[in-house]
Write the structure tokens for this entry.
Amino acid sequence: MADRMEITVNGKTVGVQKDSYLLAAVTDAGFEVPTLCHHKDLTPGGSCRLCLCEVEDGGRKKLVTACNYPVRGPVTVRTDTAEIAQHRKILAEMYLGRWPGVPVVQMIARECGVTTSRFASEITDDAPNACILCGHCVRACDEFMIERVLEFAGRGIKRHLTMPFGEVDHHCVTCSSCAYVCPTGAIEIVDDKNRPLDAKAIRDHGMKVNAEMATLDSKQCRMREVGTANIVDVMDAYDLLPVHNYKFGKHPEAKKLYSTTLKAEYFTQGAADACWRGCSMACAKAVDGFTLKTGPYKGQQVLVDGPEYETAAGAANMGCFDGDFCVEFNFYCDTYGIDTISAATAIAFAMEVFEAGVITTKETGGIELRFGAADEALTLLHQMADGEGFGVDVGQGIRWMKEKWGKDGEHAAFLQDIGMEVKGLEFSEYVTKESLAQQGGYGFAIKGPQHDEAWLIFMDMVNKQIPTFEDKAEALHYFPLFRTWFGLMGLCKIVWNDVVPADNAVQEEAHKIPGHVRNYWKFFEGLTGIELDEQKMLDQSARVYNLQRILCRMLGFGTRKDDMVPYRAAGPVTREEYESRADRYDGQLADVVGVDPAGKSTEEKMKILRDFREGQYEKLADAVYRRRGWTEDGVPKVETLAALGIDLPELVEVIKADQ
Amino acid sequence: MIRVNDTNVEWRSGMTVTLALEAMGYDFPLISVFVNEQFVPEIDHDSFEIPDGADVKAIHIHHGG
Ligand code: SF4
Ligand code: FES
């Protein structure tokens, strides 16, 4: 948390954050200081020395460059002494002598009271777009793009900007950040190869994202540092990290999978691989030189792409709190072409079924598949890929396993309750028991329980921003459509809310990150020339979203029953789960359900809670379908298609019997 | 007593925003705090004292996935 302190600037008391740079405090207080090498989105250059200020600290006075002077104590600052004015004047005269035609230099000279220079020489460059060696471009390349394509070479008057060996460096992704921050036009964009309609608009808004990554990410989600794995720590702290097939939301050993551990012991920084060269977030991480302990590549050193949050959380779900296991599991899933989420969730299910005694080593081919059995989980993964042994069963997925082991009827209900799949797809790695909206986020998602349509747990469970069914339904209307829009456009979701603008908190509807939503509209507008607003964007998505639902209908799915979640997603299935959070559940029975838990057995309380929560989910389904313009059975109404302009006869034909 | 995200939290004299967040176990990096609808910047979390009876919203900007 920030340390706040007070300093005095030109006699005025100013509140500052400890370790922040003096220049910000001075300008925030309303005083102007000339700068040439400073850029608001870049680390300080400290080279032009125009921002000199006098700092009095413990009775001692000194001149400092304000842009890179960190405030560490209650200092007294003067920005306008005669000595400072004289320094600036000489500097301005020197700059003007070297680059007399550059507008930004002329402007600064005027501010310093200089109109002519005594310092013209043979190195004077009259060009209005001369390079003034401010270093913005060098720092933008490094800080925005994590590249070092540009650098200064030469000393003294020979100092100049260049690429390595004076040649065009293939690491340059032509992101144009350097041109964007150049104050003189010395770097010019000569061609926009994709020929968008309005390249400047796209660039202007893209650069905002780059700047946020450079300036805010390290204080926010640390995507550059640890990628999506940062969420492991957060989910464990908020009782949302799936543990033992979603029974629990945290575990004392989860720290072994925290991003801090992954960073300290596994990630090889510098080997990060962004989805595309030029992404300023570059959230994908890599583990280099990892020696495999199992499988066909046993003993070999490999590079592993990850682990991402979902893979680390999947390890927790299997009870395997072991970084080596997580990385090896990650490698082999990738190598075999198996989704880490489905594999982990399916194995976690099989582990619980084994521990519950529904299956034994007879079914597993001798594998003791208990929670935490990391070696056994890897054996199973290899079997899945080889099409051998028990791996064949697990590889079919949870829906298939539920049917196979529940056939005799004895265990069918239990398997249904703990089998974390909807529409045949395994759940991704979040505990949703305390968030009705997120149960819906998973249940109503068109392609099954993944969270790329809606992740509402904080809004719902923690912030309590969407208390009513209608509020939740609105969120389950807006976010799935908004996030579908990313897919339609081929744009990444991560830069939408894994870094947020500094002023986001005070924006209306801050939860939508409106500054970033507008950025996306501008990208679309810059490419196509079509102006967007919220409604137009949602309509674009709604056409596709409804079409997808109708395609589900064509395949015999896409109704209410297909949107139901297993009870493990909504509440405690086992006594062990209920009793692990008895205070929470007892409290809810009393406060929310209106039933006194005193004197009731755990089983009685579980039944009451279950009836209540299942009833809530049904009410949510009613509200969501209403908001989406669907029938009570969850099928798009013909009038909804008509309003979206997609009431094509062949689509209407599919759903007409459902109206 | 104060309310933090609709949950009762015992108030004590000198209770700052930081202490209230700690009491709730909130350590997510993207939290915007409003005390009686007034936004409290993060720089003031250590010093801003929450009055008794206040309604505090600690809005976690959603994340995840
Ligand atoms: S090219 Fe532009 S940004 Fe780079 S050092 Fe020269 S003036 Fe500064
Ligand atoms: S702005 Fe150039 S040294 Fe501070």
Observations:
- The helical segments of chain B are 17-24.
- The pocket of iron/sulfur cluster (ligand 1) is lined by residues A 131-137, 161, 181-184, 186-187 (CB under 6 Å).
